[in-house]
């Protein structure tokens, strides 16, 4: 039996071109994680909590690439949220900093984000 | 009228001594944000979503200091979660990486965390 085929996870993809300072980046990723969680169906929320809320942070090379991944996630009916910064500090208001995808089935997410690299 | 007195926010405090790489840090902060959100009363959740889920990331200087802030938050009946790393990658399993506090009233959180510095 391949249990891995129905595991649930969450992926946050950042706009790596922004090179945000680490505290700012962490707050934006956290925003995406909560927003995408809230947008997900309750069965996804529950299944994800039950397995310890696994999440990974990946990097896209530009805002354009980030938007392409967001569109793919939406097209695949994955719960997804686009995060824009309020612009009070480091970057201009409305700058797209990251997207949250899931919690959803790992194999469905991996079909879309599987070629992106982890943020070190 | 001082509307600020009943604003709702969330604070994540990291263990600054660990000096985690930024992707790892972001994932841990996101974990704290979601876990503390899930642990909060539904009225806090709703009020926080309504104002755009404001959050800040602060730094404690050691695990010991982080545990002291966690205890203060618990004593003040603030929704709080202690996050330990699963230890698959950068750090040892069970290492305390951060805590999430709130969403809750800003003035109640600030009484506890107001002296900590933002993560740059």
Give structural notes:
The structure is a homodimer of 120-residue chains. Chain A is 40% helix and 26% strand. Chain A is of the alpha+beta class and 120 residues long. Chain A has a five-stranded mixed beta sheet, sandwiched between helices. Mean pLDDT of chain A is 92; it is low at 1-5.
The overall pLDDT of chain A, averaged over residues, is 92
**Strand order in the sheet with the most strands of chain A:** 3-4-1-2-5
Percentage of residues in DSSP E strands of chain A: 25-35%
Which oligomeric state applies? homodimer
Q: What does the largest sheet of chain A look like?
A: 5 strands, mixed
Q: What is the overall shape of chain A? A: globular
Tell me the structural class of chain A.
alpha+beta
Tell me the radius of gyration of chain A.
Answer: 14 Å
- How many H/I helical runs of chain A? 4
The low-confidence parts of chain A are: 1-5
Number of strands of chain A: 5
Q: Biggest protein-protein interface? A: A-B, 28 and 28 residues
Order of H and E elements of chain A: EHHEHEEHE
Portion of residues within helices of chain A:
40-55%
| Alpha-carbon distance between the two ends of chain A | 33 Å
Features:
homodimer, alpha+beta, five-stranded mixed sheet, 4 helices, globular, disordered N terminus
Secondary-structure topology with pairs:
2 copies of one chain form a homodimer.
Chain A: E1 8-15, H1 22-39, H2 42-50, E2 55-60, H3 63-75, E3 80-84, E4 96-105, H4 106-113, E5 117-118
Parallel strand pairs in A: 1-2
Antiparallel strand pairs in A: 1-4, 2-5, 3-4
Short recap of the structure:
Two copies of one chain form a homodimer. Chain A is built from four helices and five strands; from the N terminus they run βααβαββαβ. The first copy, chain A, is α+β, with helices and mostly antiparallel strands and 120 residues long.
